[in-house]
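User: Before I run my own analysis I want an independent prediction to cross-check against. Here's the chain; please return only the structure tokens and, at the end, one sentence I can use as a sanity check.
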Amino acid sequence: TNVALLVSNVLDRGMQLIPLVEPCLTTNDPKYETAFTNLYFLKDNSLATYVGTNFLERISWFDFSITNMVAWWMSQLTNYLEETGFSGIWNDLNEPNENDMPLDVVWFLDGRYGGGTNVTDSRKWHQVNKNTYSIWSSRTTRRALELQYPERRPFVLSRSAWPGIQKLAVGWSGDNQSTFHHLRFNNTMGLNVMLSGQAWYGHDIGGFIGDTTSE
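Assistant: Structure tokens:
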């Protein structure tokens, strides 16, 4: 239960631990009420806080296009880093990972395109902005690390990517399978990703799903 001691002991052995931090909260998370009350989540098209589901069960996704939300979440991250001593942060599920999210979910975008109550301008809809979610979340994480460790180069790992992500985070191919088919596919995928500009990129070598054979 002593996370800081664990991180310190691992560091003494020449390794560093990176925690996985999701860009969402489950509805029973202790921080959910604060984020909900301050309207820090993406909204459905009726402007109610959007609640979706994935393997974490009922969740709401952070709206990183809200300046106050970004400041609040950065404070949560820096406090967490101060308490634990982790060296970097792994942003997982930042596609965002929910296949059934309606495409007309509303982003605030700091009041642009008709203000917070305008839900008809499609420039505020998820269908237009969803591919950049990894950029918004990785930028926030990187800024938090820069605040906490101003003398260090930040380490952010991002599962999702969009052009420009190479300025903010390194990446990997996600939940690949322990098969030769995926091993072959990952080589092609990795080369293409690196040719697109994200030079620091890798894979779960042994696969994430299933077990490797002795071969």
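Sanity check: The radius of gyration is 18 Å.
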